[in-house]
Amino acid sequence: MSDDGGGGTGAPQSPGDAFALLGNEYRAEIIRTLGDAHGTEGPRPVLAFSELYDRADVDIATSQFNYHLQKLVGPFLEGTDEGYRLRHGAVELYRTILAGTYIRDASLEPFPVGADCHYCEAPIEARYDDRRLVIGCSACDREYSDTTAPPSIGDGDRDALLARIDQYLRHRILAFSKGACSICANGLDTRLLPGEELAGAGANQLDVFVHRSCDHCGAQQYMSVGLALLYDVDLVSFFNNRGLDVTETPIWELEFAMTDRHVDTVATEPTRLALRVERGGDELELVVDGDLTVVERSTP
């Protein structure tokens, strides 16, 4: 599906140029005004100069307003015969501002997610602080997810919040599991790392971690083999045919994705790991190589 058009190049020459352009309250207000006009439906609207000036919450002369407006044309705005509209980069910036990523702080006290720890059976909890969303056991030190998230993720009632958290995590997991950075869309490097070689909290939770990292923006993700294969077509079909939709079940409820109890090393030269899952008396086995490519499939 294509995006909604828009033209031109003209990005700032450096990150410093971009931040310098945005470091002004009037320019930020111009972007906010055009973003508010866009709303949530349809193509990006074009506002004539006079309409943009009238809608913006500024108290400056039109000549000064036009000065700041023209600074944004090219890098962040597109100028047309009819007026001005946001370029795609500015739309992303506007949405980031609304999400509170840079201007809002939030925290959530730990609350239960409705499932028990796969290791000690104590309630699993979710908590949010300093832009870190953590899903972990309330009693032992097991963590099932630790990721960055904007403050807006904490809005709403708990049931809706948990559903959004699960889908937000899945968005990140799906991209990384398929070898694409969820931040910059760059390709990823993949390594299988023994837990004993890692330092820090959570290193002892798995015998083997899948580590995928982006050498472009620095984003990285540690996950279990089961979680990395969560969207494998045979795995999804296997569970779905036996009454479990793993694409909708909260990931913290899926033992094969949260632990490595279903993973065995079947060869070391070259590396081969087997994920074996069971349901309804049947078993599915997926064997992967060191790049997490499935090289063998055993289906019922």
The fold-level CATH name of the domain at 15-99 is Arc Repressor Mutant, subunit A
What summary fits the major beta sheet?
A: 4 strands, antiparallel
Structural class computed from helices and strand pairing: alpha+beta
Spans with pLDDT under 50 lasting ≥5 residues?
1-9
Shape: elongated
Strand order of the largest sheet: 3-4-5-6
Top keywords for this entry?
single chain, 300 residues, alpha+beta, 4-stranded antiparallel beta sheet, 9 helices, 13 strands, disordered N terminus
What does this structure look like?
With 300 residues, the protein is an alpha+beta fold. Among the domains are: 15-99, Arc Repressor Mutant, subunit A (Orthogonal Bundle); 229-298, no CATH class. 29% of the residues lie in helices and 26% in strands. It has helices at 15-22, 25-38, 49-55, 62-72, 88-99, 158-177, 225-228, 233-240, 255-258; strands spanning 77-79, 84-86, 108-116, 123-129, 132-137, 143-148, 189-194, 208-213, 220-223, 263-268, 271-279, 282-288, 294-298. The strands form 4 sheets. Strands 3-4-5-6 form a 4-stranded antiparallel β-sheet, with no helix packed on it. A 4-stranded antiparallel β-sheet has the order 10-11-12-13, with helices on one face. Strand 5 and strand 6 (143-148) form a beta hairpin. The model is unreliable at 1-9 (pLDDT under 50).
